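User: Sequence in, structure out. Go.
Assistant: Echoing your sequence, followed by the structure tokens.
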Amino acid sequence: KEEERRLREQIHALNRIGIALTAERDLGRLLERIVREARGFTRADAGTLYLVRGDHLECAVVQNDTLAVQMGGAHGGLDLPPVPLRPEYVSAYVALTGKVVNIPDVYASGEFNFEGPRRYDALTGYRTRSMLVVPMQDHRARTIGVLQLINALSPQGEVVPFREEYEELVRSLASQAAVAIDNAQLISDLQKMLESFMEALASTIDARDPYTAGHSYRVTQYTLAMAELDGAPPERLRIYEYAALLHDYGKIGVRDAVLLKPGKLTSEEYREAQAHVAYTQEILSRIYFPDELREVPEVAGAHQEKYDGTGYPQGLRDGQIPRGARMMCVADVFDALTSERPYRERMPIEKALSILREGAGTHFDPEMVDLFFRLPLSRLLAILEHGRGGALDPEDINALSEVTVGEFYQVLLKEDRSPREEEIVRRFSRYYRRKSE
């Protein structure tokens, strides 16, 4: 009966772990959880997860309680040499054959090349003894990785061999994990594909006018910087990112004669140019976005609305305007003011910032202007200078990171500045006043 009870508990634990793994969509966190759950299931002191990458195994996660090590996965910071897919290495053998290997003491085993664990032990003072190595096979019986568990612990904390009954249970867990990794990787690949698609669409608009090249990127980066400072969660950041990238896509419906006109537009031409916002929302509404991104067309289509209701195309005001669009309004205007044009140079930075401050409460949401003025000056400069040629000096970035945009604005308004304030202005101006390369 005791054996039956323990078996039921293990099966229940497997089901619980399988459900949890399926629910995790972030690949880094998923890889960490696989190792953590497998270690907990077998009372393993340490564990390593390898992923098959062509002709080698790539170490993705390393965990070791004795050494207090948590590397790879969502933690990052893992840069270990790959393991060649050659059968003399135990993890590679398992990947190649699909067999489980259970070794009571690796130092007493002559079956595989354990120079790697020996070097690790010599470097850290650890002692690798028992090892359970299991293939991670998906629903197509394809080995996508290897799970290596190290040093099973008894209830008294002593290192013991892994029990044979764990072999099939861990193999089952590894198979569930492999399917979860496949799913997470597919989601990650789809997200990357969608992002590259969005960037390609944005670049087609920027390419029509060489003097607005990079505008979509910079507006996106300003918007994301504000949203991050605002504490927006990752799912909102993705909405804002895609909406900002594509906020001008409706310009594809505006004639070149209007879009590229160097001088002032006539009233009719201005109305045609304004129509790009409605075109943007109309075009984006035809694209299938997953549920978590369904607000992208609405946010992108509201970037020309004004806080006081005098904007277009719908005349929305205040909270009727999506929060991301209110950020984008500030970002869009600031980039337009601080970009070079064939008929004018960049607007002086103090004047551009004054326009934002003076427009708070009418053109812009005051909260969003305040948010913009709280950005680190170093981040503002990095976005401003993107694509203009020339690298930023790390010393300048470090110095400007200690100052917010709002503090810099107050310095610019001063007639008498301290030596430190003059230094901040000098460091910023050396980039802002240079010509694009």
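User: And one key feature?
Assistant: The chain has two domains: 1-183, 209-343.
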